[in-house]
C-alpha cells in the first residue's frame, strides 16, 4: 500500500463514523483551542501594553535618590526647584520637572475613593505624554503662588460630574481628614486608558502645581526629577550629564540614580503573563492528554471491530507494515484534523473575545507550527499501540473472528 492509498483509506474509514470521529477529536480541539486563545490574547495584550509604555516613556529619564549604606543623605541632598534650573542648561533637554506623587480621597457620591495626584511644573504634561482635552496647562505662576488649581483626567470628570468638559468646576481632595477645594483648569486623557482599554476604568489621576502639593498635602520628601530629551539617541548622554551635574552641585556622590522602575515593572508584568499562560497551558495539556487517551481507546475499539477486515487484507497479501501504516495514519488524521479545528476555533474565538476586551490578538507562525506539531505527536504516540496491535494480528485467527 502506498502513502496515497493509505491516506485515502484512512479518510474513508473515519468518514464512515463521523460522530465517533468528532467526539474522539473533541479533547484535541478543546486543548489546542485553549492554548491558541490564551496565547494570541496574551500576546496581543502584552505587545499593546509594552508598545504604549515605550511610546510614553522612550524619551524620558527619571532621576531618584536611592539609599546608599556608604553615604549619609542630608536635607541639602534632596531635590529642589533650583536643581531644575541647573539641569535645564544641559544640551538636549526638551522639558523637565520635579515631580512628587501623593494619594488623596475624593467623594464620588456613593463612596469615597483614593486617587493619585502628581505635583509638577508646566512641563509635567509633556513629560508624561498626557493629552490635554479641555482647558489649560499649569502655569509657572500657579506654582509660584501655590494656587489650588488642578487638571483631572476624563474618566474622573465623567464619574464625578457626568461630563468631560468640567472647566471651572470645583473638586475636593481629602488629606488626613482635611478637605482642600481645587478649581479644575484642565482635563486630560486618562493615561491608563491610553495604555490599554482592558485596564480598569476607575484608576483616576490628577495633576496640581508642585508647591501646592507640598503645602497642602503634608509632603516633605522632594520626589524625583523627570527629564524628556529631544532625541532618544541622546538619552544616555543627557542622563550621565544630569547625574554628574547633580553630584557637583549637591556635593554628594552615589545617591543619585537613573530609575529602572519602568523596566522592572515591565519585567514583572511579563513574568505574570508568562505564569498565567503556563497555568492555562498546563490545563490545556491535561485536555490534550485526555484527548490522546480517547484517540488510543477508539483506535483499539476500531481494531477489534475490524479484526476480520484485517484478516482478509492479510490473506490477500497485505503486510504487517501496511496495516501498521493505515492505523497510524487514521490516528494522525484524527489528531491533525482536531488540531486544525482547534486552531481555527481558538483563533476566531480570540478575535471575538478581543473585540469585547479591546485587544488585537496576535497569532504568530510559531504558535501555528507548535499546534500542528503537538497534534501530530499526539497522533503518533497514542496511535502507535493500536497500530502495532492491528499489525500483529494472526490472519487465520482474524478470519475466524465474528
TrEMBL record:
<feature type="transmembrane region" description="Helical">
    <location>
        <begin position="21"/>
        <end position="42"/>
    </location>
</feature>
<keyword id="KW-1003">Cell membrane</keyword>
<feature type="transmembrane region" description="Helical">
    <location>
        <begin position="272"/>
        <end position="302"/>
    </location>
</feature>
<feature type="domain" description="ABC3 transporter permease C-terminal">
    <location>
        <begin position="282"/>
        <end position="395"/>
    </location>
</feature>
<feature type="transmembrane region" description="Helical">
    <location>
        <begin position="323"/>
        <end position="350"/>
    </location>
</feature>
<keyword id="KW-0812">Transmembrane</keyword>
<keyword id="KW-1133">Transmembrane helix</keyword>
<dbReference type="Pfam" id="PF02687">
    <property type="entry name" value="FtsX"/>
</dbReference>
<protein>
    <submittedName>
        <fullName>ABC transport system permease protein</fullName>
    </submittedName>
</protein>
<dbReference type="GO" id="GO:0005886">
    <property type="term" value="C:plasma membrane"/>
</dbReference>
<comment type="similarity">
    <text>Belongs to the ABC-4 integral membrane protein family.</text>
</comment>
<feature type="transmembrane region" description="Helical">
    <location>
        <begin position="362"/>
        <end position="385"/>
    </location>
</feature>
<dbReference type="InterPro" id="IPR025857">
    <property type="entry name" value="MacB_PCD"/>
</dbReference>
<dbReference type="GO" id="GO:0022857">
    <property type="term" value="F:transmembrane transporter activity"/>
</dbReference>
<keyword id="KW-0472">Membrane</keyword>
<dbReference type="Pfam" id="PF12704">
    <property type="entry name" value="MacB_PCD"/>
</dbReference>
<dbReference type="InterPro" id="IPR050250">
    <property type="entry name" value="Macrolide_Exporter_MacB"/>
</dbReference>
<dbReference type="InterPro" id="IPR003838">
    <property type="entry name" value="ABC3_permease_C"/>
</dbReference>
<feature type="domain" description="MacB-like periplasmic core">
    <location>
        <begin position="21"/>
        <end position="238"/>
    </location>
</feature>
Amino acid at each position: 500500500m502506498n502513502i496515497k492509498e493509505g491516506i485515502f483509506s484512512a479518510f474513508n474509514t473515519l468518514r464512515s463514523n463521523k460522530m465517533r470521529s468528532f467526539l474522539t477529536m473533541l479533547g484535541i480541539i478543546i486543548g489546542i483551542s485553549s492554548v491558541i486563545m490564551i496565547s494570541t490574547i496574551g500576546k496581543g495584550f502584552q505587545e499593546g501594553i509594552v508598545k504604549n509604555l515605550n511610546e510614553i516613556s522612550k524619551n524620558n529619564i527619571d532621576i531618584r535618590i536611592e539609599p546608599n549604606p556608604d553615604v549619609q543623605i542630608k536635607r541639602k541632598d534632596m531635590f529642589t526647584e533650583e536643581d531644575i534650573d541647573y539641569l535645564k542648561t544641559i544640551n538636549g533637554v526638551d522639558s523637565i520637572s520635579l515631580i512628587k506623587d501623593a494619594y488623596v480621597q475624593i467623594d464620588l457620591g456613593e463612596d469615597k475613593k483614593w486617587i493619585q495626584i502628581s505635583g509638577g511644573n508646566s512641563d509635567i504634561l509633556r513629560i508624561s505624554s498626557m493629552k490635554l482635552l479641555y482647558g489649560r496647562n499649569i502655569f509657572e505662576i500657579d506654582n509660584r503662588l501655590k494656587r489650588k488649581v488642578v487638571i483631572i483626567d476624563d474618566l474622573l470628570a465623567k464619574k464625578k460630574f457626568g461630563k468631560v468638559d468640567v472647566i471651572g468646576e470645583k473638586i475636593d481632595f481629602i488629606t488626613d481628614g482635611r478637605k482642600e477645594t481645587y478649581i479644575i483648569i484642565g482635563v486630560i486623557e486618562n493615561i491608563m486608558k491610553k495604555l490599554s482599554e482592558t485596564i480598569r476604568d476607575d484608576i483616576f489621576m490628577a495633576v496640581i502645581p508642585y508647591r501646592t502639593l507640598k503645602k497642602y498635602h503634608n509632603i516633605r520628601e522632594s520626589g524625583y526629577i523627570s527629564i524628556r530629551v529631544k532625541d532618544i539617541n541622546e538619552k544616555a548622554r543627557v542622563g550621565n550629564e544630569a547625574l554628574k551635574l547633580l553630584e557637583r552641585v549637591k556635593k554628594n556622590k552615589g545617591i543619585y540614580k537613573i530609575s529602572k522602575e519602568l523596566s522592572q515593572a515591565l519585567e514583572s508584568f511579563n513574568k505574570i503573563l508568562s505564569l498565567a499562560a503556563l497555568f492555562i497551558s498546563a490545563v490545556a495539556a491535561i485536555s490534550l492528554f485526555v484527548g490522546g487517551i480517547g484517540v488510543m481507546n477508539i483506535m483499539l475499539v476500531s481494531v477489534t471491530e475490524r479484526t476480520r477486515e484485517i484478516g482478509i487484507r492479510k490473506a490477500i497479501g497485505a503486510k504487517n507494515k501496511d496495516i501498521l501504516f493505515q492505523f497510524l495514519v487514521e490516528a494522525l488524521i484524527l489528531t491533525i484534523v482536531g488540531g486544525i479545528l482547534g486552531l481555527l476555533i481558538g483563533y476566531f474565538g480570540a478575535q471575538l473575545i478581543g473585540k469585547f476586551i479591546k485587544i488585537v490578538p496576535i497569532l504568530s507562525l510559531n504558535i501555528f507550527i507548535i499546534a500542528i506539531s503537538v497534534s501530530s505527536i499526539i497522533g503518533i504516540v497514542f496511535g502507535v499501540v493500536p497500530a502495532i496491535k492491528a499489525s500483529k494480528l494472526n490472519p487465520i485467527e482474524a478470519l475466524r473472528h465474528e
